[in-house]
Amino acid sequence: MTDTFDGFQLQSTIDVSGTLRLELVELTVSDPAPDEVIVRVEASPINPSDLAVMLGAATAPADLDTLNLTGSQDRPIVLAKVSPESMGALSARIGIGITPGAEGAGLVVAAGRNARHFLGRRVSMRGGGMYAQYRKLRMFDCVALPDDLDVSSGAAMFINPLTALGFVETMRTEGFSGLVHLAAASNLGQMLNRLCIADDIPLINVVRSTEQARLLLDQGARYVLDSLSPDYESELREALYETGITLAFDPIGGGSQASQVLAAMEAAATRDVSTYNRYGSEVFKQLYIYGLLNPSPTVLDRWVGFAWSIGGWLLTHRLQRFGKDGEARMLERVRNELTTTFASHYTARLGLRDVLNPDIIRAYSRKATGEKFLVTPQD
Ligand SMILES: NC(=O)c1ccc[n+]([C@@H]2O[C@H](COP(=O)([O-])OP(=O)(O)OC[C@H]3O[C@@H](n4cnc5c(N)ncnc54)[C@H](OP(=O)(O)O)[C@@H]3O)[C@@H](O)[C@H]2O)c1
After folding, report:
1. Of 177, 194, 304, 363, which is most buried with the most CB atoms under 10 A?
2. Does residue 150 share a domain with residue 81?
3. Ligand 1 neighbour 99 (Cβ under 6 A)
4. Are 24 and 150 members of one domain?
5. Of all atoms in ligand 1, which is nearest to the CA of residue 160?
6. What total number of domains does the chain contain?
7. Pair 104, 150 in one domain
8. What is the structure's pLDDT at 171?
9. Does pLDDT of 225 surpass 80?
10. Mean pLDDT of the chain
């Protein structure tokens, strides 16, 4: 007899008139293929990339001032308007229902022939569509969690932990010896800070408030700079001179912070040079933009010399380069350090209906420091 699991999943759709619709839709999951499992989803974080999918796109989000709650208490529906200028960026998803939630954790309730060893185990998983009560997915996208681990600790095993490790791997494989990190008080930034302390890797954290600076200093950070301080640029040049760091990771993207970092690296690299070179230093400087926290254009002041590069950095692309063995090694480390180096802390647990509450939507859309939300679809 085939086991069938019924429940709800959250769905985000944008229609041709520019209306975003968030709602709960019914879900039936059954018949796992030989290599598949069915997981009862218990926890899934709201990461900035999930928000982007849920509300439109990172560069084209719906206008939260237009949020409108309709439907019933049991089956709420939230509508919002997407501006006509944003619709071009969204054309590929018009009319397509998307369930957000890139990663999560839950209990394996059914398993195909080759995946029986997962049955009854609590797993961490990736593959999207986690804001749902059940999820069918490949066993290769699951990692069995230690029996005594709280499910919320296993909910965010992939995106931010692998990204922090991926930055360090990129640093090593590309021949750098330390890194600058912008918006460094984020959930990911705090993991990177703990990782660099543990592995003795020079890290310059850049934040945008004294509270964020205190947070990282209290967690043992050596260098924390506040980009809003009047002395920021000189402090950055000094820290770069001291450490010799020439690699930076920037999740902000828009504005001139990337340019400031490259210019400060160039200034640090030329400080001790006695002969003038009108092309600047020969020290190569690399900055990777890996997020869209500020979707406005990236502004580059051209006086950064000629030995520099700005590139994009995406975890999924990098994992392909690190290869299966590299990824397995990283996942093993994450699994062993889920409650320490790679721990996430959550502001609130949200059942699927809570995720559709307009006040709560505005709260989790802030992406504010220390405010990470956990979707718990069974609540
Ligand atoms: N490329 C990839 O593969 C990849 C993988 C993982 C994560 N990411 C990206 O990494 C970033 C951090 O993710 P997370 O889960 O750690 O986020 P998070 O915990 O929600 O933190 C977001 C942080 O960004 C800051 N911030 C927001 N808007 C900003 C702006 N315009 N300028 C400067 N700082 C700003 C916030 O500070 P305030 O409190 O001051 O607002 C907060 O500290 C996101 O952009 C995410 O998309 C990318």
Report:
1. 304
2. yes
3. no
4. yes
5. 6
6. 2
7. yes
8. 98
9. yes
10. 96
Length of the chain: 379
- Ligand 1 binding pocket mutation candidate from 103, 180, 369 (most atoms within 8 A of CB): 369
What pLDDT score does 88 carry? 86
Distance 187 CA to ligand 1 centre (A): 8
Domain that holds residue 78: 5-157+347-375
From 44, 47, 170, 206, mutation site for ligand 1 pocket: most ligand atoms within 8 A of C-beta: 47
For residues 134 and 40, give the distance between their C-alpha atoms in angstroms, rounded to a whole number.
5
Name which of 64, 62, 76 is nearest 351 in CA terms.
76
The reply to whether 51 and 147 lie within a common domain is yes
Same domain, 149 and 17: yes
Please indicate, yes or no, whether the overall pTM of this predicted structure exceeds 0.70: yes
pLDDT at 1: 58
Q: In sequence order, which residues have a C-beta less than 8 Å from that of residue 252 and are 6 or more positions away?
A: 182, 183, 258, 291, 293, 294
Beta carbon of 49 within 6 Å of any ligand 1 atom: yes
Cβ atoms of 335 and 143 within 8 Å: the answer is yes
Burial of 307 (0-12, 13-18, 19+ CB in 10 A): middle
Q: What is the pLDDT of residues 269-292, one digit of tens each?
A: 999 988 888 889 999 999 999 999
- Domain final position from 299, 317, 335: 317
Q: How does pLDDT run across 306-326, given as a tens digit for each residue? A: 999 999 999 999 999 999 999
